[in-house]
Amino acid sequence: MTDVAVALASPDVLARARKIKLFLMDVDGTLTDGGVCLISSTSPDGSAAVSEMKVFNAQDGQGLSLAHTMGIQTGFITGRSSPAVAKRAEELKVTFVYLGQAKKTEAFEECMRKAGVTEEEVAYMGDDLPDIPLARRAGLAVCVADGVPELRAVCHFTTRRLAGRGTAREVIELILKAQGRWEEAVPLALA
Questions:
Q1: Can you say whether the dihedral through the CA atoms of 119, 60, 190, 184 is positive or negative?
Q2: Alpha-carbon gap, residue 31 to 4, rounded angstroms
Q3: Each residue's pLDDT tens digit, 105-131
Q4: Residue 146 assigned to a binding site
Q5: From edge to edge, which strands make up the β-sheet containing 96-98?
């Protein structure tokens, strides 16, 4: 994300971003492009197995790592149960991981309680209809560029990047730049 994108953020969005201490997000359609890739295989005995494949953006990974380094807690709240998501969350030291959440409100409230933050200190990023209740509560609600219009209508900010193409990184940069901490964060980036 460039400083131009921060310059395009409204004063209200920047004021909201300054307060963020917890960044929660959906996974499919935000950190991934929304595609669900199921791979089937048949063993010699004729039994079938299905595996799931997810593609994550490395810049999102760097952004989530920087958020952790800078003391911003992160979390995934997603409707699918996926070992790939759990593994990626572990790699990136994501604080809260809630998989298989048909309704996300209870997980959202539990994350806030465990993090010790208020709604205005939470950023939430999503892409689809199940994200609307959380977006309505979050201090900074974010819709990815290719998210549904119904979600975009209730969000404070829409990313310039498409789902799976660095949206989390864009939001983390926005937050850290609004907080005046981006320059401090850059030298702390790890490969």
A1: negative
A2: 23
A3: 999 999 999 999 999 999 999 999 999
A4: no
A5: 96-98, 73-77, 22-25, 122-126, 140-143, 157-158
pLDDT at 3 over 80: no
pTM of the model: 0.93
- Strand 37-42, strand 48-53: pairing: antiparallel
Separation CA 108–CA 4 (nearest Å): 31
Q: Rounded to the nearest 5 degrees, what angle is found at the Cα of 131, between the Cα atoms of 159 and 62?
A: 45
| Inter-CA distances, 145 with 101, 162, 177, Å | 23, 5, 20
Question: Does 127 count as an annotated binding residue?
Answer: yes
DSSP-derived 3-state class of residue 165: coil
Smallest Cα–Cα separation from 124: which of 168, 69, 94, 164? 168
How far is C-alpha 85 from the geometric centre of its chain's CA atoms?
12
Band (pLDDT 50/70/90 cuts) for residue 136 is very high
